[in-house]
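We close this part of the discussion by returning to an individual protein. Part of our work consisted of pairing the sequence of a single chain with a tokenised description of its backbone. No coordinates are needed to read the tokens, only the vocabulary itself. The amino acid sequence and the backbone structure tokens for this protein are reproduced below:
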Amino acid sequence: MAAPGWHVGRYIQRNSRFLLNNFEQLWGHRSFAWTPALQQQAAEANKESTETIVIPRKKAWSKEAVLEALASTVSMDPTAYPYQFQDDPYLYPRTSSQFKLYSLSRESGKSAAKYFIDSNPKFFTKDFAEPHIPCLMPETVSLRLEEVSEEALKERISLRKVTAAVDMYDQLIQAGTAVSMETCHDLLDLICFYCDRDPVQNRGPQTEDTEDSGEEAKRRRGRAHQVSDFFKSTWKENHNAERIFNLLPERDTQCYSALIRGMVMHGASAKAFSLYTDMLNNRLTADVHIFNALISAAPDVREKYLERWDAITELLKQMRQQKVQPNLMTFNNVLKALRRCGFLAKSQAPHVINEMTAVGIAPSLASFDHILTIFFKAASSGQSSPAILEEIMSELEGTSFTCRDPDDVRFFSNAMKVCLDNKDLELAYRVQSLVEVGQNRRLLGDFYQQNLYYGHFFNLLCMMENIDTVLKWYRRLTPSLFYPNPHGVRELLQALDADNRLDLLPTIWKDMCSLGHDNKNNLVEELVALMARDRHSPEVQESFAECALDVKSAYTGDKGRSGLEWNISSLSHITSLLLRANKTQQAWDMLQLFKSENRVPPEELLEDFLSVCRSDGSAQRAVELVQLSAAFCLSATPKLAKQTLADFNLTENQRAVLSELESAGEPSD
């Protein structure tokens, strides 16, 4: 969308010739006494300006231009839940566990929908999406070519049918049919990536009478396990990739590259280096992907730190000898391998960054994350803490990043952890400012990493900032960006205590309920202890009493759900809060809970309760209080009975009962 001034500029540009041609006439009516020389100069300027006017060509806007313009006018709403949960307000996740369940449910639904679409493509032949979104259209998942041919092999490779592709290749070789080198490359890539087995496909709902074994059924449960399952597999002996590789009449660099990268990915680092040596013996030149894989695997094939670094430097020298241009992943793999080189890492890491700059490769966030990990690990081992993060932030401030390395998403959470460990609030604000630049927030990673980042930031705020600033960030971050864990809530309670803002505790209790922390014994006990520690104004005591009743309902509710268990401190604190707000009946109910829970009330609480009875003139309640004290066999029973006899107007029966309790508690001669 065009800016408002754009229309004015186009109007001036279109009418500039008219204005220039009539410039002298417009000013001729004014008595400025122009000389002929000045008139000639103005005419030349008029002619030159007219010749330099260039009519712009029509602007071709992208299909997303309007959406991008509208999105730029909308800022983040701190009170809203994350955008991925806007479809169903009733099912908004309010805790970390609910978020995980909701996310898994969404992914499960997507998998089921994808399975149905791919299994029934005939029902989804029309595409109404604008712009066209290919990933939402049905995919061909069934084999169409059954004859033995290279086209059938290509079809199985494109559908990621590893076992079927290997079988088809073997049939082609047995039939004496030659397979093109390009198809062989694709086949080796497929087998090596999936480690010689079929990937887990999206499957429909499984019936109860499935023929799969129990272990197979367990393996299919949970999308997270399905996605990461093939990464845990190891390179086996008699691997089909190696067998096919050895059957090839001619092997080029790309064939070696597929096997070496697959071996490194699946834990066969020593075999990868052996295959690399075989490639050099065959007078072949490696590509950058081979070197990147071997550099990342160097720490696995050497034990000592010096040997690991020597192996890395030797690979870099061979890259230069073979005239292989390094890329970003080359240097990032070097930095990542340096993290496993002990004391050498701190001295060699700056040279790696300088070399990146020398060859014209800009470091990514992953590069700085590796640097940060190297130096911070050295600092945590006993040396003085370096100011490496400050130098990194000076380099990165105001920069908008895109993801160039899968490890880019680790930088922000690790940087904020460094700020928290060093209690450097100013540096934490600089990191947060960098997150807010452009679309950098997308590089916070998944929900776990994002929650980790904001958790570190919020804990640091609670320790170092005033309570007003803490609450401002608390309302800004929760629940739109993260869910505070129990540790974060405890830090918030301590911050409220430090700044003497305990009047906000009832509000925090409501947030604890919405965040699912109302079943944490330690948090609830700390909350009621803070409310009951000191006396406050009547308005605050009234709000505390209402909060205490709400806390009581959490205890007395479904214990299987809440997980809360009464103890003496929680019972005493809630009773004291109710007494201070003159809620005598509710406080008396709490005293009855002491009896039902087999808990002994403290003597100070009974004395406070007797004072309230004295203020209310409730003689019968005072007598019952002394009887309750006697039921618990408290040593304060005679004292309470004596005070009740002296301070209350009692009936003869009440005096007889109290006299008996008073004498029963006195020591015998």
